[in-house]
Each structure stands twice: as C-alpha cells, then as structure tokens.
Amino acid sequence: MLSTPIDSHCAAAADNNGAAGDGELRFPPGKGHSRGGGEQRWSRAASAGGGGGGGGGESDGGKNRATDYDAAYFQSYAHLGIHEEMIKDSVRTDTYRAAIFHYQESIAGKVVVDVGCGTGILAIFCAQAGARRVYAVDASDIAVQANEVVKANNLSDKVIVLHGRVEDVEIDEKVDVIISEWMGYMLLYESMLGSVVTARDRWLKPGGLILPSHATLLMAPITHPDRYSQSIDFWNEVYGINMSAMIPLAKQCAFEEPSVELINGENVMTWAEVIKHVDCYTVTMDELESVTAKFNFKSMMRAPFNGFAFWFNVQFEGPAELLGKDNTPLLDHKVYENGSLAKKRMNGNKPLVLSTAPEDPPTHWQQTVLYLYDPIDLEQDQVIEGSVTLSQSKENRRFMNIRIQYATGGRSFVKESVMR
Predict the structure, then answer these.
(1) How many Cβ atoms from other residues are within 10 Å of residue 211's Cβ?
(2) End-to-end alpha carbon distance in the chain
C-alpha cells in the first residue's frame, strides 16, 4: 500500500472556475473545486487511466453521502506520481488498450463512460477507437489536468471531463460502454467497484459492455523464509550484541499489516483457491460489503509456511459472450493452474485476461501477503483448512478488514489485520 505524503508542487492544481480555454470541464450542480487541509496520503489508484476517485460514499441510508475519508481519498489522486506509476505499468495499460480495440465494433459510434478517468488515457483510447462521445468522470482534482490533456489532443468534441463523484454528476443520456480501472490491492481494497456499480445502474443500456467484465480474487499459502530472516532473525545478533528482545516488536512491525510485495511461483505452496468471483454485470453493493470463503489447501512441498498471499485476475468480455445458445455458461471459472487463471472457453478461444499472479509478468499491484508472526513447518500433502472474511471497515469503508481462521497439524489459528 502506497502511503507517501503529497507534496503540494506535485499535486494537480485547480481553481474554482475549472479550466480556461477550449474544452469544457463540468462540475456537478452546485459543486466546485475544494481542497482539504492537513496531510494527505496517496494510495493505490483503483481507476481508469491513472487513477482517481470515480465516486462512492456511504451507501443508502447515507450511502450516497461523501465522507471526510472520501474527500481525503479523492484528494490523494491529485498527486501525479501515482498516475505515472500506473501508466508505466505496461501490463496494465497495454491490456486495457488491447481490450478497447478488441471491442472497437462495440465502441465505435457509441457513448462511453470512464469511471475514475484519472489522466484520461483510457477515455482517449476509447475516442481513438471511434467512440462518438466519452464521459470521463473523476472526483479528484486530476480531472483538471485530464481536461487539458483532452484539449491538447484535439478531442474536446468527443471527450467530456466531468469533475465530481459518479453519484453527483449528470449525464443526460444512456451509455453503451463502461470502462474503469477500479481494482485495488487484493482486488477489493479501496471499494471503487461500487462506483462502477453505481454508473452501471444509472446509465448503462441493457446489453451494454463493461470493461473489465469479470474479476477473480485468489489466495494460497506461501513459504518465504528469506523474508522472515531479513525482518526477524536479523535481531538475534546485531554487531555482536544480543538484540533478541526486539523480536516481538519486529514481528508486530513487519507482519501486523498486509504487505504489498512481489513473490514468485516458487513461493506458492499449493494450488490457489478462488475467494471471490465478481461479475460486473450483476454484482451488487451489498455483495461487496463482506466476502467470506472457505478453503482447503494441500501443501505440495515440505517447507515453512510463512503466510497467505492474495492476487487477482480480471477478464474483458461482453455479456453476449458469456452464454451459449442454450444459455449455459461458455466459461469454466474453476480451472486454475498454479494460481494463474487458465479459463477455457467451449470454442477454444482464450479470453483477454489481466493477471497479477506471482508467475505472470509483474504489475504495480504486485501481490498482497499476510504474514504469520511465526512460521509453521509443513510436510508435503499436509492440509491447511479454514475460512477468510474480507469486509469493509466501519471506520472507513475504503479500508479492508481481513480475518483468516485456519487449522493445520491439529492446531487452530486466527490471523486478523486491516488494510489501510
């Protein structure tokens, strides 16, 4: 999780009148720019084209009300560095561009909304693919710069930048396509998928296209003794001094919260299991508030068990591609090989997939690891079974509470953490 304070000279600049010159930057009725005080921190952007807040607030019964946490979240996306990091992630950006041009026939001449447009790169890809109009929505001040990018590319007649939350902005027509890069660490961190759901329910025509269309969160136990040695065993002796008294604190500092880092396929001890499959055409807000899944892993090696790793895949498919003539699914979502999605279609064609699995090319999402305070020595074929619950924090719905109950070798354990 990125947590670098924003430097004011790197943050997107804005004034209360929006952008001057050609190209219109639109605000929700009665809204203008506002910049909060105090220290802001950036987090992994979960939005199209380099991040930003598509929207989101508390859900009904207050659900559509923006909170102070939301304001800080949106402001964090005014920082240029996070957009640069995401755009430079070629796996991410190239896959989105490939998906847009793969579905060019569904985009050309149609109306598109880009939820959380960030710098506007995905909106511009859609315009290049022939979209008649693209609404690029972002609640962060980066929308001001996105509008300048649109003008610099002579696309103001096609791309309309709307500065505001998805819940607040107005679009006076239905749309044919929704595109958004909403995925956070562990897929659901930051809760931006809710903004896509809101856009879908407000504007998408029946039979419309959502990119990406599906997402799958996976989990597997890992062995990573080097990481444990670097963080913990180091304190046993430092320059000839016994500093083992520091070890309890070192464990807390190193392993209390989830760690976003790169692991590789050799770290993964078992086949991965699906924790959550998301169908963006049908998923509901309530479904995203809490996710619980059971697991049963069998170790493929004799090694220390150091923690659980999470990663995800997203797929880009249209609604008509998902069912055969008899309305049976064309896809088998249960076929996974070594944690990497190996989904097969009945017609033999492979869907377009963006994977963050350990054995695939690295992305800025990396993998998310929950380390155990103490490793457990596993034998080959030893079973780890239990359940995992991921829930939105009551303190701040963009935070994620993680609770893993697991048992192995006749002993039971609980691991709890918060991804902030």
Answers:
(1) 28
(2) 8
